[in-house]
User: Fold this.
Amino acid sequence: MKLAEALQERADLSRRIEQLKDRMINNALIQEGEEPAEDPQELLKEFNKCIKEQTKLIAAINLANATVKTGDKTLTEMLAERDMLTVQIEAYRALISEASTTWQRARNSEIRILSSVNVRELTKKADQLSKQLRQLENRIQETNWTTEI
Assistant:
C-alpha cells in the first residue's frame, strides 16, 4: 500500500469511527417496550474493529514519516516545515491586509493613519513563502505516492 493510500484510508476510518460513535450514542437509550433502530452492541464491535485498524494504520504512517527521506529531510521534517510555512504565510497576509487599510480623513486637521511596514516588501516575501510552500507540498505528495508502507 502506498503512503498516500494509507493517508486516504486513515481519513476514511476517522470519519467512520465518528459516525459509529454517533450511532452508538443515538441508540444508547430507548423508550420502554421499544427496540433500538440499531443494535448498540453490534455498533460497538464494529467501532472497536475500526479503532484497531486505525491504530495499525497510524503507526505505519508515523513510522514511514519518520524514516522516509526525500533529499536530506524526513517526511516528518517536511510536514513540520509545511505547517510552519502555513503559519508564516497567514501572519504575513494578515499583516499586509491590516497595513493596506486606507483611512479617509474628512479634514486635513484630522490625524493621519500610516502603515508602519513596507507592504510591497511584505507582499513579495509572502509570495516567496507561498511558492516555497507549493513546492514543498508537491515534494510531500510525490513522496506519499511513491512510498510503500
Observations:
- The helical segments are 3-26, 40-67, 75-99, 119-146.
